[in-house]
Specification:
4 copies of one chain form a homotetramer. Chain A is α+β, with helices and mostly antiparallel strands and 142 residues long. Helix content of chain A is 22%, strand content 35%. The first copy, chain A, has one domain: Hotdog Thioesterase (Thiol Ester Dehydrase, Chain A). Chain A is built from 2 helices and 6 strands; from the N terminus they run αββαββββ. In chain A, strands 1-2-4-5-6-3 form a 6-stranded antiparallel beta sheet. Chain A is globular. The interface between A and C is small, with 8 and 8 residues. Strand 3 of chain C pairs antiparallel with strand 3 of chain D, so a sheet runs across the interface.
């Protein structure tokens, strides 16, 4: 079971289902078990001092892992976030976009697990790590 | 070492340091090891379908635990989110505020740990659980 | 859907399926959404210095949450640990048993979530917190 | 700040401080930000059915991350496990050792964070993922 959508189809699908965040999250690359997603940092993502907020990093990790999962199970399917763990390790660089490198570690019949590493563009050390778990309801037909 | 701020002082402090979310997070009750915080749900917190988004629940858990920690260590101190784990268990009720009940499990010299249970107002079963960890930098004087 | 086993039946069942740890984990109390389980601390659970090891605390949290879940879904059913998060907050008291207070936060068709607080007997502050997630395979008949 | 011990010194140190698990955990390779550690699976690590138990996988992740951290901060230093999250994704192969690939994501003055992927020897898909957090007490001199 390979990719059910390519990067362009996936981007179009995300824009349709999450119109309120159009332009914030960009699919930079997509492979069978990996996706690279960018958070185009805007004022609303920032804390005082110019650093990206925790909820924005959570949103990026969740969006990347959700997109990775949907790219594999197809847009008719459902995936619901059931668990998350994150480590916040460094302050993101002020004024830089964030890049999430997301690996699909498991895609089972009812559960998907992704591991995500988040970097500030231009900074070598990672700013955060996340793992996200999704429940895939058994009845996949809409 | 008891509370360094009461509920009113804490609310005022949060409004000063996070002016961009003023009116979103309300301190409903504050004790030495417990805080009750409300997310006043607005359109920007919602996913299509009317349910509160994951990042909004993360923000509520983080805000409650941060406020609990600051209420104890005082507003001159610093606390930086270093870790988080969440379980998303049920869909929040559409159109309802969320209430976070946050317990301070540990307040050490360099680490604080909080446990948070999130409910939709009027719904008995919890919608999410979180634990948040904060690093408290050694030099507390500003 | 209430308890499928009482405390005595549950203890007997655990002894049958985990004979290698017989006498280590005791069911102290059982309610519909709560279980109290004791780790009878033995030499093999200790680190140098006399404190209980991390893996032993993990085993206690897992055993308590597994037992809670099985007490509800019945011994013919299956439950597989899929996720865990723990915070280790204090050194356990040397020479004391550990008590886990485990709450069943969710029991869905395919997922169960428990929250666990671990104390050293005779010590008021908790030594660790855990959440455990179980997948319940769809076909429950053996 | 590079490695304070090489693989042989690290192995010798672990044997000294954890004599009760001598021969269970082997350092297979060590680099500045990565360690490969083997769990030599024995009967005591197994669940009925022949699969490696959850607590044994926790112990492997903890040992790998602890060893990685100590290799960098030196054997006079202290590191205490403060947090852990794990995803259990597949049943380990029966009768196979486990290999943990552990990456040091952060080594700060007071906190270290490692990410660990666990494989059964001879199996391509990972059986578990873990992240471990350590507190490094400020006074490093013994």
């Amino acid at each position: 079971m390979g990719l059910q959508m390519d990067a362009a189809e996936l981007a179009k699908f995300l824009d349709q289902v999450f119109p309120q965040v159009r332009g914030e999250f960009l699919v930079e690359a997509l492979e069978e078990e990996k996706i690279l997603m960018r958070l185009c940092v805007q004022d609303k993502h920032l804390r005082p001092g110019g650093t990206v907020s925790g909820p924005s990093m959570f949103a990026l990790a969740d969006c990347a892992a959700y997109a990775m999962t949907l790219a594999r199970i197809g847009e008719q399917a459902l995936a619901v976030t059931t668990g998350c763990s994150m480590d916040f390790m460094r302050k993101p660089a002020a004024g830089s976009d964030l890049l999430a490198t997301c690996s699909l570690l498991k895609l089972g019949r009812t559960l998907a697990v992704c591991d995500i590493l988040i970097h500030s563009v231009g900074m070598q050390a990672p700013v955060a790590r996340a793992s996200m778990t999704y429940s895939i309801p058994p009845n996949r037909s809409v």
